[in-house]
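wait is this the right file?? whatever heres the structure
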């Protein structure tokens, strides 16, 4: 910076002028004997000038801090990023820098959402959205809506998630931002996959992957491949699931994204667990847990422990299952993640039901249902009701079983979750086998039809076999 540029700067010119005036005044004060009084006055003036200088550079410094926080977030180092953003909010006055302030709120929202702090995430998204609207920033507004869509999806608020994703996609298209549109489509794929809308999920993932490849965004492509792996795993397409997970893991490693790799390993653990490959499942879970601990992601670690609990429960290792569930529940409570805690309690209910501990099973299911209702997760509540239906059916409480199954089926239909509905139909068929063969046969055939449409051939065969074993009266 030249002398002319420095003197032309509105801040530095004030500092220099102040120094000149100070020197001249100090010389005069020395001869007049006013030096102590004048020195005190100018010391305050110089401090104010230096503060103004500091704030003139503050926007640049803040954005550097936010760049660093964003990098931490992308690597899964959310606690460190959270601390850094907290430093920005606490130590620097942001009111002069609307764009920087908006960005800080948006990053805070994404990090809080990842950590399961849903109220804080919504508040930060709301602040960011308001500020983006004030400066007519459609891209920023689209990013906020996408983040809200992801948050609502994780909480099971499917209608709100679709609305947010739809608005975000429209804005991304208006500003011709293919990367943002790809992110929205990836979130939509996750939503449709969770709801059992397999064709819609594949379409969204396919479109998103094409856009990510056009933008040469390997991290986005890895996220889509992980979602595809989850989808194929749920459909029983094990080879396709492994292929997708393998490609995703390679891309995550290339991007040095330990959080993404941990998520893939957790999916692989779930896959191997479902296939009965217990050693491979434990290895995958162990690697995933290590990576989650490295990036200080307690929520991810809790998810792994929940999966381990499911594995040990299926193997009949009841003590190990309880330990894993208990540890997972503690982590979920620390993260204030009620949905995760509800899932663990649902698993505990299944465990106690299989052990014949009916009171403990009901207690766990009841607590899980309350938490699902608090977060407005009808799909989770439907799963609990199906478990309760199974419990009452085994106890011979047919009326209570029918009521639970009926409520579960209603929720599954409202959420358009056809797989859940098919599973309930299998339970209803089993309930009616001893009393109404024709009704049982009808339920099994309805389940078979749904499994067929979902491409779940093993389940389709099982339902057909049960129907054919239910002769007419």
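ok assuming it is, sequence goes like this
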């Amino acid at each position: 910076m030249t002398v002319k540029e420095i003197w032309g700067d509105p801040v530095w010119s004030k500092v220099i002028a102040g120094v000149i005036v100070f020197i001249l005044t100090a010389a005069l004060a020395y001869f007049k004997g006013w030096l102590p009084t004048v020195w005190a006055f100018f010391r305050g003036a110089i401090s104010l000038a230096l503060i103004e200088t500091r704030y003139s550079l503050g926007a640049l410094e803040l954005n550097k801090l936010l760049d660093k926080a964003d990098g931490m977030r992308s690597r899964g180092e959310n606690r460190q990023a959270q601390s850094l953003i907290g430093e920005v909010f606490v130590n620097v006055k942001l009111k002069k820098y609307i764009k920087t302030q908006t960005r800080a709120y948006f990053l805070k929202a994404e990090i809080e959402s990842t950590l399961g702090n849903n109220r804080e995430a919504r508040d930060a998204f709301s602040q960011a959205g308001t500020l983006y609207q004030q400066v007519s920033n459609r891209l920023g507004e689209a990013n906020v809506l996408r983040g809200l869509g992801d948050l609502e999806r994780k909480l099971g608020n499917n209608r709100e998630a679709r609305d947010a994703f739809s608005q975000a996609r429209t804005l991304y298209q208006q500003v011709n931002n293919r990367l943002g549109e790809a992110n929205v489509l990836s979130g939509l794929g996750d939503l449709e996959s969770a709801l059992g809308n397999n064709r819609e999920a594949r379409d969204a993932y396919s479109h998103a992957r094409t856009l990510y490849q056009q933008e040469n965004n390997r991290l986005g492509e890895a996220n889509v491949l992980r979602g595809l792996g989850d989808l194929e795993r749920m459909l029983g397409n094990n080879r396709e699931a492994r292929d997708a997970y393998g490609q995703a893991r390679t891309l995550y490693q290339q991007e040095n994204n330990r959080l993404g790799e941990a998520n893939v390993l957790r999916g692989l653990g779930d896959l191997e667990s479902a296939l009965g490959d217990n050693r491979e499942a434990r290895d995958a879970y162990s690697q995933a847990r290590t990576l989650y601990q490295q990036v200080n992601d307690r929520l991810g670690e809790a998810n792994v422990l929940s999966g381990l609990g499911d594995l040990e429960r299926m193997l009949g290792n009841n003590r190990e299952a309880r330990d894993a569930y208990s540890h997972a529940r503690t982590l979920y409570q620390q993260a204030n993640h009620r949905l995760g805690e509800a899932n663990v309690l649902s698993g505990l209910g299944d465990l106690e039901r299989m052990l014949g501990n009916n009171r403990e099973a009901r207690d766990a299911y009841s607590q899980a249902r309350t938490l699902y209702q608090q977060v407005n997760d009808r799909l989770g509540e439907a799963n609990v009701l199906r478990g309760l239906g199974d419990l009452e059916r085994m106890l011979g409480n047919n009326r209570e079983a029918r009521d639970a199954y009926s409520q579960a089926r209603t929720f599954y239909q409202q959420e358009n979750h056809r797989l859940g509905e098919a599973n309930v139909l299998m339970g209803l068929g089993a309930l009616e086998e001893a009393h109404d063969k024709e009704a049982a046969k009808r339920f099994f055939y309805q389940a078979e039809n749904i499994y067929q449409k979902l491409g779940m051939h093993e389940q389709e065969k099982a339902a057909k076999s049960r129907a054919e074993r239910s002769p007419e009266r």
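The mean pLDDT is 85. so i think its the right one actually
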